């Protein structure tokens, strides 16, 4: 496995694969890797000839009071994990390499779907994601790109971006990887205290209960309210609990497939999760 830290170095490494029309798979990450990330790499390995993983903590997607400075950076350990799952090239550029060579004037805004859900509490977040993903797509020029359904809204934003701008890339959504107790794996889980870590799986438990309640015919609004009460009782400060169609349209009845979204804070840690509930009449 190679590690490249410059755009030029990455191009030099990828040019032979491009010349021989090999399928390039790309997994963008911010590092501090866990099984969730590694499953994206495993998916890429199945479909592609060459697998590139980027590790870049993107400053422009963090708000002023968010955890950019403290975000865990563990490149050496990440590299070991990536080598084990068959990654070919790690691209780990500096902020300077990505943004430093000239002032950036271009912004990318993917419209309404970025102002909803996480976009409400994190203004500008998805613009920052859209810019860095576009830059990385142009740098790596992959055939396939892999994103986790854990960040369902992000996946929807990237799919929209690729469609709107005719980027010649297949975007693949990969299911959420969870701990045994149901907690969706996340680099931010490391911020949880021991006690908070024990409480955190309540999020997934409430989603699974909601799924059963919906299949038992309870009204969507009642089900959402019950999630709110259960999370609040468990000590969470709820940011949002929402129901959307898989394309993120608002829905108020369970008469089609629905995705239930939760964002909630436990102490200082903001956790997100979602569950797709199938409708079958
Ligand atoms: P991050 O490093 O948090 O930016 O995540 C990089 C990629 O890994 C994103 O596409 C995430 O959606 C995905 N990812 C993170 N955690 C999980 C998980 N538990 N299951 C599936 N994908 C995940």
Overview of the molecule:
The chain has 281 residues and is of the alpha/beta class. The chain folds into two domains: 2-174, 3-Layer(aba) Sandwich (Rossmann fold), CATH 3.40.50; 187-275, Pantoate-beta-alanine ligase, C-terminal domain (Pantoate--beta-alanine Ligase, Chain: A,domain 2), CATH 3.30.1300. 39% of the residues lie in helices and 19% in strands. It has ten helices and nine strands. It has helices spanning 7-19, 35-47, 75-84, 95-99, 118-121, 125-140, 152-164, 194-199, 202-215, 220-234; strands at 2-4, 24-29, 50-55, 89-91, 144-148, 170-174, 237-244, 258-266, 269-277. The strands form two sheets. It has a six-stranded parallel β-sheet, sandwiched between helices. Helix 6 crosses helix 7 and helix 9 (202-215) runs antiparallel to helix 10. The relative contact order is 0.13. The mean pLDDT is 97. Adenosine monophosphate (AMP) binds at residues 29-30, 36-37, 40, 147-148, 150-151, 174, 176-177, 184-187.
Helix fraction, binned, reads: 25-40%
Strand tally is: 9
Which CATH class of the largest domain? Alpha Beta
Q: What's the name of the CATH homologous superfamily of the largest domain? A: HUPs
State the domain count: 2
SS content category: alpha/beta
Low-pLDDT ranges: none
Which series of helices and strands comes N to C?
EHEHEHEHHHEHEHHHEEE
Total helical elements: 10
**Distance N to C terminus:** 49 Å
Strand content: 15-25%
* Average of the residue pLDDT scores: 97
Whole-angstrom Rg: 19 Å
